[in-house]
Amino acid sequence: MKTIDHLYINGEFVTPHGSEFMEFANPSTGAPLTRVRLADETDAQRAIAAAKAAYPALSGSSREQRMDTLQRLHDAVREGEHELIEAMLDEYGGPLATTTGTVRRAAASFAVAKELLAGYDFVRQLGSARVQMVPLGVAGLVTPWNANYSFICGKLAMAIASGSTAVIKPSEMSAMQTAVLTGLLHRAGLPPGVFNIITGRGDTAGAEIVRHPDVAKISFTGSTAVGKAIARGAVETMKRVTLELGGKSPTVLLDDANFEKAMPLAIAAATFNSGQACLAGTRLLVPLHRLDDAKRLAAAEMSRLKVGDPRDPATRIGPMVSRRQWERVQHYIRLGLEEGAELLVGGEGKPQGLEAGNFVRPTVFANVHNGMAIAREEIFGPVLSIISYRTEEEAVQIANDTDYGLHAYVFSGDVARANRVASQIVAGRVFVNGLYDEPLAPFGGFRQSGLGREFGIHGLEAYLEPKAIMGYETTL
Ligand code: NAD
């Protein structure tokens, strides 16, 4: 078992003040993996003080200096690709393709931020006012376990591009991945305090970041419940908040869609990242008169997905991150059965031969009503609910009948119709007739999927605030 007992504060690897340890197992095998010493409130305070001290120099640095910093961070992460992939496979169990994608996206986020910075207008003339976009100060970056590297790097890249320093509080469940990433980021040779990384529990280290008056902004990715607690806490010191929360995204198959082509994409959307994805399309809306076709194809496609060893390139679904997450998925499968949904494939328990790890059986339910818990609550596992509709209007109504609004997917043979439906769905992003990856497009949700946007110009501006100066040419 590997012991992880260092935090990264003020450019140094330090022993935590916190004395609590947590142990974690390899999710694929159940074998003990790590023993992690966690940061506490005092560690958070030290990290915040370091970030505060580093802020004047970073915020006063030139665009070119920050572009150079971002390039160095990019190169450092890129060079460590192999180590990063290995740690994520062991600790998280994401299938190889997902893991490789996450690692590459993490490195690329620094390159994307550098490009944005190169072309960004920090000063604009609005009427007689000169409006300057200024950084906020110390940013608290709080991230979940389901794509640890890309959340940390995506947020850090934008903070640095804006001129803000950072205190990063990754999930306690990603400590080994974070340790590898921290080592790489350190090699980029940034001035001490520009970024600090403190792995600890949310209710201790995380809560201190939310409470502390020297933190100006929180960028959080995680569950809606914690996001609400953070928003409530942040208002005390009027911190700016960006919240990227959960989802229960609809995939709308219109009746003129080619179901044979659309279904593999719809199933991929439902099972991205082993289903542990906020943007998963977990409600499949199909026209009633083509329901039988949809059920047959969805069941066949889901059954084809290989579950198992994340190192096997053929694997599409790895283990759930923890025993707790495994139990959560089981709970919802049971609930679906109790609520009267029709089980097409999958169900409770572990797939045969995979009893040691946190593996689940990819599951499709049909005959789901949008009022059922499996249609309303985020499961965070490979469980798809098929819901039928009669008309296009009803499809849109069901798609929008949710507390969330993060993502949507629309498939149709008529692109104008697909776009019409896409425009009526309340979601931060809609994919039409395919699956895409556009790092410049804003990412974030309506309603209880969050507040604000990340990525691209919108993401950069979430770390900036306008300051208007009038009379800047006036002498007295
Ligand atoms: P979580 O909300 O439990 O934890 C996320 C982070 O917040 C962790 O670092 C945790 O330690 C910290 N935290 C917990 N309580 C805190 C508090 N009181 N104050 C400050 N920090 C606190 O989420 P999770 O279980 O790690 O991740 C899964 C959830 O994340 C899912 O609900 C999923 O939908 C969501 N998610 C959203 C997106 C998105 O971009 N919208 C992306 C990925 C995951």
Automatic annotation (TrEMBL):
Pfam families: Aldedh. It comes from the Bacteria. Gene3D superfamilies: Aldehyde Dehydrogenase, Chain A, domain 1, Aldehyde Dehydrogenase, Chain A, domain 2. One of its GO terms (molecular function) is oxidoreductase activity, acting on the aldehyde or oxo group of donors, NAD or NADP as acceptor. The active site is at residue 244. Keywords: Oxidoreductase. Residues 15-469 form the Aldehyde dehydrogenase domain. Belongs to the aldehyde dehydrogenase family. PANTHER family: ALDEHYDE DEHYDROGENASE, ALDEHYDE DEHYDROGENASE-RELATED. This is Aldehyde dehydrogenase family protein. It comes from Massilia eburnea.
